[in-house]
Amino acid sequence: MTAQAKQVVWIIVYVAVLVWSAIGAKDGLTWFLEVFPALAGAVVLWITRKSFPLTRLTYALILVHCVVLMVGGHYTYAEVPLGDWIRDAFDQTRNNYDKIGHFAQGFIPAIIARELVIRQSVFNSIRWRDFFIVCFCLALSALYELVEWWVALVSDEAAEAFLGTQGDVWDTQSDMGMALLGAVLALVLLGRIHDRQIREVGLVTAGG
Question: How far apart are CA 195 and CA 207, in angstroms?
């Protein structure tokens, strides 16, 4: 499959899931708040598609993250059927689809950040690079928790659906813990594949 064909497939999947997500969404404001990062990300990718094309892995992961956000926006995170199935199958006490979202919030931005810092030759040390990436993902997760808090203060109506705490007093901490786990696993599991793809397209000497 050519690069152009892959781009077309990416766009088709993105638009199809976005349209499905919007149709019959449980709450319009919650849908917009949940899906906005996917909308903003798509705009950035379109603008930079020629000046700063990303690796296949990064584009694929971004699409997965967009789908996670769109599904959560359609149902609200606390009511996604997949989360109900996981709850029942593993005898859990709540719908934990939001934990999938927060895991992705660490796993996928870690690869995006990794690609940016490698290609821009920001670090000479791999250890400092990976430390920065994990810190960046934790900071991003913390920012998202602050946004959730601000939404709760401004709109009582959308607060419960957007926060999705489901009565868990440690929800914020566990969300950030999942993002941390996702970031670390992404670096451990995908580092070599990512390096290979960066070298294949001749962007930089990966890991340098």
Answer: 7
Calpha distance 141→172 (Å, rounded): 9
State how far the Cα of 166 lies from the Cα of 183, in Å rounded to an integer: 25
DSSP state of 55: P
Residue 2 is given by DSSP the state -
Single-letter code of the amino acid located at 51: S
The pLDDT tens digits of the residues spanning 153-195 come to: 766 555 555 555 555 666 788 889 999 999 999 999 999 999 9
DSSP output for 10-67: HHHHHHHHHHHHHTT-S-HHHHHHHHHHHHHHHHHHHHHTTTSPPPHHHHHHHHHHHH
CB of 67 within 8 A of CB of 35? no
- Residue 3, sorted as left (phi over 0), alpha (psi -120 to 50) or beta, turns out to be alpha
